[in-house]
């Protein structure tokens, strides 16, 4: 034969330390949430400042690159004209023979 056991609804009342602990946990949670918002706002602000500094650095770098590119092409044009003049002279030396 199977034994039947009676099921009873048990109501547990929290002792005072548990209530205090729950309130403390709620307070800590609210503090963490507000602190997290401050940290995120700070991070967004600083990343915006860093972005403007980076933008200035990139613009300066592009200006310097443009100047260097102009210098390289000017030098190449000078070398080209010198080679053309030199090749004419060399051709003149050999054509006289």
Could you outline the blueprint of secondary structure elements for this entry?
Elements: H1 16-95
How would you describe this protein?
- The chain is mainly α and 97 residues long.
- It has one helix spanning 16-95.
- The mean pLDDT is 85.
Descriptive labels:
97 residues, 1 helix, rod-shaped
Poorly predicted ranges: none
Strand percent estimate = under 5%
Let me know the number of strands: 0
Content-based structural category:
mainly alpha
Helix and strand element order: H
Total helices: the number is 1
Q: Judging from the principal axes of the Cα atoms, what is the shape?
A: rod-shaped
State the distance separating the first and last CA atoms: 132 Å
Mean pLDDT: 85
Please give the share of residues in helix: over 70%
The value of Rg in angstroms is 41 Å
**Most strands sheet:** none
